[in-house]
Recover the amino acids of this structure.
């Protein structure tokens, strides 16, 4: 790459202490510049030349977020989404969990900058298919799910379809025949939901694609926040579903570093590889943090076995059953 102002200048790593989203008015570009390792790692993996222009593009998206977006992704989260979408040039992207839609903007920008059309020419459907069980933003019932997309990137909003009242259980029914090359899991983080989402995605994904997992470091974040605030208890109860899923999913993996450590990527796997895989059996047997519906439990039984599923239905408190035995 020619030398010049667009050449990335290495900056010292941010580390875990920069995980908090920048405050209103703070320069998100400076935050991103402290994440040179994450930028270079993802660029290398997806054959993109790292540059300051990439950081400027992502910072501009983050800085356009409206004031009502209070549950915000970190700028480095958007950077990873942007780079994956831009580098993979996917025919179809699936997002599970939308909320304000700020993360969707990172995906849309990456696709647009890679020259991917807003709608797939094969079936005419929007390239990004987003699924959310809710109809309105969790913290603002007056705003529909994904409302920030039209405010942040109105010129690209036509590239995303928001499928409300839907979960990963609806993927096969709602998606067309175009294979999914990139997916983002950011819905329910309570175990075993991330595993359910990943199994369902593996049914519709190209094996050469990637699944991006959000919130794989919630325990670290809770402990760090308690330490910094000198609290004797964790400020929130962290879910471990995404963390456990990343650790035990039996495929190629990639994780952000510095303040991108909360985002990880894994490869989908063929269904015949997933069925009764020892890693999945051990994963689903970990204490469940939520009670998925019967249809979701049936999926887990099919892929992990009834014995492992029954073991998982025990809460972290000894002897307390989460669900009645069938």
């Amino acid at each position: 790459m020619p030398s010049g102002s667009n050449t990335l200048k290495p900056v010292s790593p941010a580390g875990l202490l920069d995980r908090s989203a920048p405050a209103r008015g703070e320069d998100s570009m400076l935050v991103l510049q402290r994440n040179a390792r994450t930028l270079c790692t993802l660029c290398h993996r997806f054959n993109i030349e790292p540059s300051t222009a990439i950081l400027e593009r992502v910072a501009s998206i983050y800085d356009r977020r409206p004031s009502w977006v209070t549950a915000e992704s970190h700028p480095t989260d958007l950077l990873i989404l942007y780079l994956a979408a831009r580098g993979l040039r996917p025919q179809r992207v699936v997002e599970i969990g939308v909320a304000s839609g700020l993360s969707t903007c990172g995906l849309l920008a990456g696709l647009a900058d890679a020259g991917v059309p807003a709608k797939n020419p094969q079936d005419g459907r929007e390239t990004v298919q987003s699924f959310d069980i809710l109809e309105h933003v969790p913290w603002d019932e007056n705003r529909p799910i994904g409302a920030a997309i039209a405010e942040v990137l109105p010129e690209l909003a036509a590239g995303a379809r928001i499928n409300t009242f839907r979960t990963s259980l609806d993927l096969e029914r709602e998606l067309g025949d175009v294979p999914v090359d990139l997916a983002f899991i950011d819905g329910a983080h309570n175990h075993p939901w991330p595993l359910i989402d990943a199994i369902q995605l593996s049914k519709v994904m190209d094996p050469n694609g990637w699944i991006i997992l959000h919130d794989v470091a919630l325990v670290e974040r809770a402990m760090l926040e308690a330490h910094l605030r000198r609290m004797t208890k964790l400020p929130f109860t962290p879910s471990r579903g995404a963390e456990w899923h990343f650790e035990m999913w039996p495929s190629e993996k990639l994780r952000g570093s510095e303040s991108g450590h909360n985002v990880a990527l894994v490869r989908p796997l063929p269904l015949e590889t997933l069925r009764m895989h020892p890693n999945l059996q051990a994963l689903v047997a970990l204490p469940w943090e939520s009670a998925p519906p019967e249809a979701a439990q049936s999926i887990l039984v099919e892929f992990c076995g009834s014995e492992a599923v029954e073991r998982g239905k025990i809460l972290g408190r000894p002897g307390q059953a989460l669900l009645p035995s069938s």
User: Anything to note?
Assistant: Strands lie at 93-96, 128-132, 136-137, 140-144, 160-164, 180-185, 205-214, 253-255, 263-266. The chain is about 35% helix and 15% strand.
